[in-house]
Design brief:
Chain C: It is found in: Cell membrane. The complex is a heterotrimer of chains A (361), B (286) and C (278). Helices cover 24% and strands 35% of the residues of chain A. Chain A is an alpha+beta fold and 361 residues long. In chain A, strands 6-7-8-3-9-10 form a six-stranded mixed β-sheet, sandwiched between helices. Chain A has a six-stranded antiparallel β-sheet with strand order 13-12-11-14-20-21. In chain A, a hairpin with a 2-residue loop joins strand 11 and strand 12. In chain A, helix 2 packs across helix 3, helix 2 runs parallel beside helix 4 and helix 3 crosses helix 4. With 286 residues, chain B is an all-alpha fold. In chain B, strand 1 and strand 2 form a beta hairpin. The relative contact order of chain B is 0.13. Chain C is mainly alpha-helical and 278 residues long. Chain C is globular and about 75 Å long. Chains B and C meet through helix 1, helix 4, helix 5, helix 6 and helix 7 of B and helix 1, helix 4, helix 5, helix 6 and helix 10 of C.
Chain lengths: 361, 286, 278
């Protein structure tokens, strides 16, 4: 077990910056998920922790020791790859033991570790098969087993579930959670899937274009995102963003009017100095935070284009372009396209952003 | 990826040493030698000695003419034949495919000496099986070795036999990389098989055809063994002498390294020109 | 029968009618090589048309062995080809590995030099190579002279570079994270995975060495140091020589390669299709 600390970590390829100074503290035994769209630098960050990429500037410490110049093998980490990276010419058993054998680990100890990993992951039956003869889920288990065998201080996962089908993905997600509890080891997990991040993480690191946007517990990110990007990235379906204008300010509050819904005004309490009257802002409301007409602080009327019925909930898609809204309704089975519908917004369930995407609290 | 100069060069150095000593340096050295008079001891620098002689040497022009003549006739014939072989071998209608493939590809493994000997025997004037077969259908014997035209034809036949299958292998691999659905779409559009060949197969195969042509040109340009062994040192009377043979004669019979290097660099110049043409022919359309 | 299957049948017949004679012509020289090798010399030089094998191969071979020490030459050829193939596969796959899998200073230059000179004719380096090996190193008529200079061939490097760079990078990173040393990754992960490509390369290199004529002709011209093709070549054109014997030699050079070709056709074709020869 070990803590991992990233201090001002920078990665440049040639002159091109990929990570611009990341500061992340990961506690011992914590499960941290790096999440962000592709190209945000999350995998690069993970590979730098693993020692597979040079660190252009800054420091990475594992267990209190700076590892910038330590070989990957000496860092006490194990990594599970997106492609599983199983050696196709070796049996499962050989795959699990390869690293230990190559480093002259005593044979009985190697056997013990391999047996233990096989038990934890329930792959005892597969030991003499080759990767080609395994299903996707079984391969995934072997890949994780190979990491367990190393008895690492830190587990690194690089999008480990993205090659599995939806059902298996849920199953393996639970499995990885269980593994974290069982082993109690620090785990760092990279994914572009916010659902995985929400369900697995103790804390989530949201990245965008090489910058850390926010670090926090899953529900904190959901309830209190630092900016429009995090607000839009966390939560599914996405948060709705509606253009608005400040029409009135008072001490500790601002009243905004929705640009696309003339007359819809909402008074939002603020801790900071409110923006000037006339300023353009964006109002963010999650699909699940629309209420029945009259039961909020402000009503808006929309015309449904499409309604998707998922059983327990339905999503109504209304409007188009920057006016498009996704509205979750529990009791809207009968809604069909073309229907008119009035919903309510509550001030405490709406977030305010400036036009650059920063949160106005 | 991490920068790993030391590791990389540990893997690279053994090959790089050999490559530098036996390829890179000789390329430079050959160029330098072509500017030296090499029949004096020590060699002396004389920039026009070999190149001047080359420009005025009828033997050089004879070899150049023969080489180009073989190139111009043999390469297109062989490449066309190879395309036909590849396309037909790729036909789903073909039975006992393995046998046909063996027939056309087998010459690829036959050594130059072995096949030169066989061709020499087969084309013998009085006892060669070819003339016997010609006679048996009422045609006169051909004196393949005493007249220039049949001797040249013989060289071209031999080289074509040896290398057509080789090119067909490369072309066949290219054909098999063309997705079936392209042809299926064309069939649905009522494009005939023949038109499919000219408007789909050939254009898609063009880069590979050009590649084969360049390989063949550069190979044929250095033609040595066939005129050396089949037509007896470029006979009759220099009628099948090639640049490769001239280089051998000058370099290793007369030990005139400077002049032979000039001949070698003439070939290099041709090769570079041809490679540039290839790059131009297969350039990406803007 | 429908007109559709009729036209298919017609096309199939036309295809075979065209291809069969062509295949017979193409096999004819090889067939005649075998026929000649089994005929006595006075049979080869007789007016009749002989298209079937006789039973004189052993006598012809004895004549060949009388004209030149062909068995010894075959021994040299086999040893040289085996050693050359092993060394060349090793050197070029190591170099290909470095170029495919590491970032290092000078990589661009190395690749540029290899690619920029690959279409230069071999004739260009013939004279300096000869001067170097024969005069400077005094190595003419040795095995080293036959084996080492041809190792420059860079097609293997490009072939293996391609093979290694098509493998998923994660595989090697996984081993790296597990603390496996780079040369062990090369030996125990990369090479086993490249087995089909190595086989293709080895076959092509072996064939090239086995059939190599010009360089061995120049550098090892001493009787007793000649390779089999060179030894056989010296007989062609002599007046008092057994042509049945020469044909027996040609068969001995060719038939083993034909057998290898039939058995390992897939690798052969893969090697040639990748342009790994010449």
């Amino acid at each position: 077990m070990a803590a991992v600390t990233l201090t001002n970590v920078v990665k440049r390829f040639g002159g091109f910056g990929v990570v611009h100074g990341a500061n992340i503290d990961i506690a011992e035994g914590e499960f941290v998920v790096f999440v962000g769209p592709s190209g945000c630098g999350k995998s690069t960050l993970l590979r730098m922790i693993a020692g597979l990429e040079d660190i252009s500037a800054g420091e990475i410490a594992i267990g209190g020791k700076v590892v910038n110049d330590v070989e990957a093998a000496e860092r006490g980490i194990a990594m599970v790859f997106q492609s599983y990276a199983l050696y196709p010419h070796m049996t499962v058993e050989q795959n699990l033991s390869f690293g230990l054998r190559m480093n002259g680990n005593p044979k009985p100890d190697t056997e013990r570790r391999v047996r233990r990993a096989a038990e934890i992951l329930r792959i005892d039956e597969l030991m003499h098969r080759r990767p080609k003869q395994l299903s996707g889920g079984q391969r995934q288990r072997v890949a994780i087993g190979r990491a367990i065998v190393r008895e690492p201080q830190v587990f690194l996962f690089d999008e480990p579930l993205s090659n599995l089908d939806a059902e298996l993905r849920v199953q393996m997600r639970v499995e990885i959670s269980r593994l974290h509890k069982e082993l109690g080891v620090t785990m760092i997990y990279v994914t572009h899937d916010q659902t995985e991040a929400m369900t697995l993480a103790d804390r989530i690191v949201v990245l965008k274009a090489g910058n850390v946007e926010q670090i926090g517990a899953p529900l904190d990110l959901y309830d209190d995102p630092a900016n429009r990007f995090v607000a839009g990235f966390i939560g599914s379906p996405k948060m709705n963003f509606m253009p608005a204008r400040v029409v009135e300010t008072g001490p500790g509050a601002a009243t905004v009017e929705l640009v696309n819904h003339a007359g819809a005004r909402l008074s939002k309490p603020l801790q900071s100095t409110p923006p000037a009257v006339g300023a353009e802002v964006v109002l963010g409301v999650r699909p699940e935070h629309f209420f029945d007409a009259g039961k909020g602080d402000c009503d808006i009327a929309v015309k449904a284009d499409v309604a998707e019925h998922l059983g327990s909930v339905s999503y109504v898609y209304a409007g188009a372009g920057d006016d498009e809204l996704i509205i979750e309704r529990e009791a809207s089975r009968q809604r069909a396209s073309g229907d008119h519908l009035t919903v309510a917004i509550k001030a405490d369930k709406a977030l305010l952003f400036d036009t650059k995407g920063a949160r106005i609290r | 990826m991490r920068h790993q100069n030391a590791t990389a060069y540990r893997f690279l150095t053994p090959y790089l040493l050999i490559f530098s000593i036996f390829w890179v340096w000789p390329i430079i050295s050959s160029f330098l030698i072509s500017f030296q008079a090499t029949r004096t001891v020590p060699w002396r620098f004389a920039p026009t000695f070999n190149w001047g002689r080359l420009i005025g040497d009828p033997a050089f022009y004879n070899a150049l003419k023969n080489t180009l003549l073989i190139l111009v006739i043999q390469v297109p014939v062989m490449i066309s034949l190879a395309i036909v072989m590849a396309v037909l071998l790729n036909s789903p209608l073909l039975k006992v495919r393995g046998l046909y493939r063996f027939a056309f590809f087998a010459p690829v493994v036959v050594g130059e000496v072995a096949y030169s000997a066989v061709f020499r025997l087969m084309f013998n004037l009085n006892f060669g099986i070819i003339n016997k077969l010609l006679n048996s259908v009422g045609l006169p014997s051909v004196d393949w070795f005493s007249n220039v035209t049949p001797a040249m034809a013989l060289i071209m036949i031999a080289v074509t036999w040896r290398w057509a299958g080789y090119n067909a292998i490369i072309l066949l691999a290219g054909l098999q990389s063309i997705p079936d659905d392209v042809y299926e779409a064309a069939t649905l559009d009522r494009v005939s098989k023949v038109k499919q060949f000219f408007y789909i197969t050939l254009p898609l195969l063009k880069p590979i055809i050009v590649f084969c042509a360049v390989l063949s040109i550069i190979g044929t340009m250095q033609l040595f063994t066939e005129p050396f062994l089949i037509t007896e040192r470029g006979g009759p009377g220099g009628g099948t002498e090639t640049l490769g043979l001239l280089l051998y004669r000058q370099g290793f019979r007369s030990l005139n390294f400077g002049y032979a290097s000039a001949v070698a660099y003439t070939m290099a110049g041709l090769a570079i020109a041809i490679t540039l043409v290839q790059l131009w022919l297969t350039r990406d359309p803007k | 029968m429908t007109s559709r299957s009729q036209s298919r049948l017609g096309r199939a017949i036309a295809l075979h009618l065209f291809l069969t004679p062509l295949a017979v012509i193409w096999l004819f020289p090889l067939w005649m090589m075998v026929v000649f090798s089994t005929m006595p010399d006075n049979g080869i030089f007789s007016p009749g048309i002989e298209l079937l094998p006789h039973d004189n191969f052993v006598d012809n071979f004895n004549n060949l062995q009388r004209d030149t020490n062909f068995v010894g030459a075959i021994g040299i050829s086999v040893s040289v080809a085996v050693t050359y193939t092993f060394l060349s596969v090793l050197l070029t796959s190591m170099a290909g590995w470095a170029l495919a899998r590491y970032q290092f200073v000078g990589k661009g230059a190395v690749v540029a030099i290899i690619l920029g000179t690959i279409t230069l004719p071999y004739s260009v380096v013939l004279i300096p190579q000869f001067i170097m090996v024969a005069r400077d190193f005094q190595l003419a008529n040795t095995w080293i002279a036959l084996i080492v200079p041809p190792l420059f061939n860079s097609l293997g490097v490009l072939f293996m570079r391609q093979a290694f760079s098509m493998m998923p990078a994660d595989l090697f990173d996984a081993a790296r994270v597990e603390g496996v040393k780079e040369w062990r990754i090369f030996l125990f992960v990369a090479l086993p995975l490249a087995r089909p490509m190595l086989a293709a390369l080895a076959i092509i290199l072996f064939l090239a060495s086995w059939n190599n004529y010009l360089w061995p002709l120049l550098i090892n011209s001493q009787p007793g140091s000649m390779t089999a093709p060179v030894a056989l070549g010296t007989l062609i054109g002599l007046t008092k020589v057994s042509w049945g014997g020469i044909m027996a030699g040609a068969v001995m050079l060719t038939v083993p390669m034909l057998v290898v070709f039939v058995l390992l056709q897939r690798h052969f074709i893969a090697g040639i299709a990748a342009g790994a020869v010449k």
